[in-house]
Design a protein that fits this description.
The chain is an alpha+beta fold and about 150 residues long. The protein contains seven helices and three strands.
Length: about 150
């Protein structure tokens, strides 16, 4: 985790993913930053023509309310693909996400859903975004563009 994208981030953390497609391979010269057993490539640095692009496939910007809204939007597909037993189970999950978002002290719901501070604390959850912005500002103020 030496890359500046993860400065201050724990070596292991949870993040919300919302995709049915995955990055299968990286171009030559890329730096593989993060992955998990479901999606081996979750973050990478891709350099093209001297410019580095930091990419994450998960969504650090999503809070629980947004996850609930996206789950509601994709509910039928999530039931069809086996993520929920039925529509009622999906609705129960959505309700719990919305309740926990409104009342982050609901340890019962957080425990049941396996949601910890790395998802609940916006400063921790969005640290990659902050790190990217700060790195970009540093590069722009110095007139340099780093390759990683």
């Amino acid at each position: 985790r030496a890359h500046p994208l993860y400065a201050g981030k724990a070596p292991v953390f949870d993040g919300f993913t919302s995709h049915f497609d995955d990055v299968e391979s990286l171009p030559a010269g890329s730096i593989h930053l993060a992955g998990n057993n479901i999606t081996p490539i979750q973050a990478a640095v891709v350099t093209h023509e001297g410019t580095a692009f930091w990419a994450v496939q998960y969504h650090p910007e999503y809070d629980l309310r947004e996850v609930a809204a996206l789950t509601r939007f994709r509910k039928d597909g999530l039931v069809e693909t086996g993520y929920f037993a039925d529509s009622a189970a999906a609705e129960s999950f959505i309700t719990e996400l919305e309740t926990l978002h409104a009342d982050p002290l609901r340890k019962d719901i957080a425990w049941r859903l396996g949601i910890d501070h790395d998802v609940m604390d916006a400063d921790i959850r969005t640290l990659e975004v902050k790190n990217w912005i700060e790195n970009t500002l540093r590069q722009n103020s110095s007139g340099l563009i780093a390759d990683a």
